[in-house]
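Why run this: before we spend reagent on co-expression, it is cheaper to look at a predicted model of the complex and decide which construct boundaries make sense. The entries below are exactly what would go into the expression plan.
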Amino acid sequence: GESVGLHLPTLSVQEGDNSIINCAYSNSASDYFIWYKQESGKGPQFIIDIRSNMDKRQGQRVTVLLNKTVKHLSLQIAATQPGDSAVYFCAENIARGDDKIIFGKGTRLHILP
Amino acid sequence: DAGVTQSPTHLIKTRGQQVTLRCSPKSGHDTVSWYQQALGQGPQFIFQYYEEEERQRGNFPDRFSGHQFPNYSSELNVNALLLGDSALYLCASSLPGNTEAFFGQGTRLTVV
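The model came back. Tokens follow.
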């Protein structure tokens, strides 16, 4: 089916540590995956994306890993900062030419001082 | 560049009423998508407009309709409002065939 889900609804991380947010998806035909950050009172903000023909992609302080064998996606945030506090959504796009984005429920990331 | 702008930011309506929400896409973008985000949930795709036509639609009833204007701005209309329509309504704009979507801050609709 077209579903994207997350393992944990809330994650608490010490400031300066690395954060890992996990996500499972069920549609093996999904072609494109995106991580969004949503701060309180704001719309989702694009963080990083990855296509199904890749297994890793790095950005500034963020890395996305894709394991197609077990249909698992993760977002790693290095040296977590207070400004990283937000809800993080993984999302998928089923196929090229289909622009519909399917979001999971989200993980709230708390940064501990 | 103002990015994606939505109006109004907040709205309270009564059950049975009709509502119109507005969205101006990011400069240069001609594709507009609408999403509904219930509290504590991820956004759910409603529909997408391109070249003034509805190109794709999610699993929403016909009470939800939209429009895109020649300047690429868009409206979302919801008729016969239900309490369950209370949500944050998000507009996202993109270029055709480019799934990197830019979201507005949303309109918080409360139906009482």
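The two ends of chain A are 40 Å apart (CA to CA). The interface with chain B takes residues 4, 32, 34, 36, 41-46, 49, 89, 91, 93, 96-106 of chain A (CB under 8 Å). Bring this page to Monday's planning discussion.
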